[in-house]
């Protein structure tokens, strides 16, 4: 398989061309023949015109790539090595939503042939690839794993907005259903991953490794968020505490903040779901989730308290929320906890304007029911800076004074303006 991919006698296909799939597809397409498959015809057309729908890659990233973008199953049928990079979200009850990965497995089952390879990159709980995905492939193909085709798992490690840690510079964890598949899958990824690969002993180990990467970060941020609540009651600035503690060589430098997106705020629920299915109710992991999921409400109530104390009529009060994406310098709004802040503020009958230099107003309207403000006012009772986008970093005291009332609050969730705001009431996590 490896040599035939290298000689372009066989083709690699990436299924799901979002912020994970597209960079992988383009990187492979510099070396071998690639099919980029996505069910969204509009996105496919954009990529044919060298436009990344996720707004992560420049048009030059498409140059020199041997790739065919399609949503046609007949084209996909010509591939021999399939990489699945579809989303794996949770539903409104924080239960894993496997529909995208199940549908991708069904698609593969309709096109796979004897001798083909399938590698999943989508984040799942340990056991999902072999216990949930393989039976779907075999139902639609009539083929048997190991005997007729090979399966592997290699967790994605793409960090949206990060231009330094990319597909080529991050060590890639790989796994396979047997020794032969592990060796082949490792060699294929070594074509593009300059940092090298780590060969996991089993598919379950690779799945578990991905889950705990984000669970560990989630728990550490939850600790910072809980500390920020405690320190706020002590009238201590959390970021000053972290700055002081960070002078010790082994202190882990995490910060408080809203925890959204499609990784940290989602992956732990996949692990706790599987844990519960096996008879163990997670305690530490879910405790962290409760804290992080509650931060939007905490922020909204802090702002409301300030407004009540300084503006008798809450229904006339106006709040500006700066930042709507799930993290800085990206356009992705999926699972953005800023939306929860907006929802909480509106539940208190506050008038809320939202601005963001990266987000799309139509997407916000479709996903969360609110749009971006076309212009800002000069009489806000509070401004909440939720996401530290680069354009926000240069703003100063005069800027906030110019858009707010005299007794307004500037809620700086990530501590960007610490010791820089003097004319308004300053607060941070």
Written overview of the protein:
It contains 15 helices and 13 strands. The model has no long low-confidence stretch (mean pLDDT 93). It is α/β, with parallel strands linked by helices. α8 crosses α10. It has 2 domains: 2-201, Rossmann fold, CATH 3.40.50.720; 223-428, NAD(P)-binding Rossmann-like Domain (Rossmann fold). The protein has an 8-stranded mixed sheet with strand order 3-2-1-4-5-6-7-8, sandwiched between helices. Strands 10-9-11-12-13 form a 5-stranded parallel sheet. It is 39% helix and 14% strand.
Provide key terms for this protein:
429 residues; Rossmann fold; 5-stranded parallel β-sheet; 15 helices; elongated
What's the structural blueprint in terms of helices and strands?
Blueprint lengths: L1 H5 L5 E4 L5 H9 L4 E4 L3 H8 L18 E4 L2 H4 L4 E4 L14 H13 L5 E4 L7 H14 L8 E4 L18 E5 L2 H12 L6 E3 L3 H31 L4 H8 L21 H11 L6 H10 L1 H16 L7 E5 L15 H10 L3 E5 L5 H8 L11 E6 L11 H7 E9 L12 E4 L1
Parallel strand pairs: 1-2, 1-4, 2-3, 4-5, 5-6, 7-8, 9-10, 9-11, 11-12, 12-13
Antiparallel strand pairs: 6-7
Helix pairs in contact: 5-6, 8-10, 8-11, 12-13
């Amino acid at each position: 398989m490896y040599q035939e991919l290298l000689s372009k006698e066989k083709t690699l296909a990436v299924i799901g061309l979002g912020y994970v799939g597209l960079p992988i597809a383009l990187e492979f397409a510099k070396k071998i023949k690639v099919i980029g498959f996505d069910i969204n015809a509009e996105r496919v057309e954009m990529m044919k015109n060298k436009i990344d729908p996720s707004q992560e890659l420049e048009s030059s990233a498409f140059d020199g790539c041997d790739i065919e973008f399609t949503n046609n199953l007949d084209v996909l049928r010509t591939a021999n090595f399939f990489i699945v990079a579809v989303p794996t979200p949770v539903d409104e009850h924080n239960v894993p939503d496997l529909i995208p990965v199940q549908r991708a497995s069904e698609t593969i089952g309709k096109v796979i042939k004897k001798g083909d390879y399938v590698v999943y990159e989508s984040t799942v709980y340990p056991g999902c690839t072999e216990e949930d995905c393989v039976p779907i492939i075999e139902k639609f193909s009539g083929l048997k794993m190991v005997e007729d085709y090979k399966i592997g798992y290699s967790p994605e490690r793409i960090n949206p907005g990060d231009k330094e840690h990319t597909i080529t510079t991050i060590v890639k964890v790989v796994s396979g259903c047997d020794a032969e598949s592990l060796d082949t899958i490792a060699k294929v990824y070594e074509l593009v991953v300059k940092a090298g690969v780590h060969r996991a002993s089993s598919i379950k180990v690779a799945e578990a490794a991905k889950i705990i990467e984000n669970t560990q970060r989630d728990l550490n941020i939850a600790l910072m968020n809980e500390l920020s609540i405690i320190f706020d009651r002590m009238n201590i600035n959390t970021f000053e505490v972290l700055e002081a503690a960070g002078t010790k060589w082994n202190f882990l430098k995490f910060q408080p903040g809203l925890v959204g997106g499609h990784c940290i705020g989602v992956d732990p629920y996949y692990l706790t779901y599987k844990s519960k299915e096996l008879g163990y109710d997670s305690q530490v992991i879910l405790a962290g989730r409760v804290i992080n999921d509650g931060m939007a409400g905490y922020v909204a109530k802090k702002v409301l308290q300030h407004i009540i104390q300084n503006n008798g009529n809450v229904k006339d009060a106006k709040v500006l929320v700066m930042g709507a994406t799930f993290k800085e310098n990206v356009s992705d709004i999926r699972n953005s906890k800023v939306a929860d802040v907006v929802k909480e503020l509106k539940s208190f009958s506050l008038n809320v304007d939202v601005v963001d230099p990266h987000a799309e107003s139509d997407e916000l309207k479709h996903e969360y029911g609110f749009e971006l403000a076309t212009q800002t006012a000069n009489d806000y009772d509070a401004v909440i800076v939720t996401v530290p986008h680069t354009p926000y970093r240069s703003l100063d005291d005069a800027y906030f004074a110019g858009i707010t009332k005299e007794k307004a609050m500037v809620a700086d969730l990530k501590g960007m303006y610490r010791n820089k705001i003097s004319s308004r009431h300053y607060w941070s996590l």
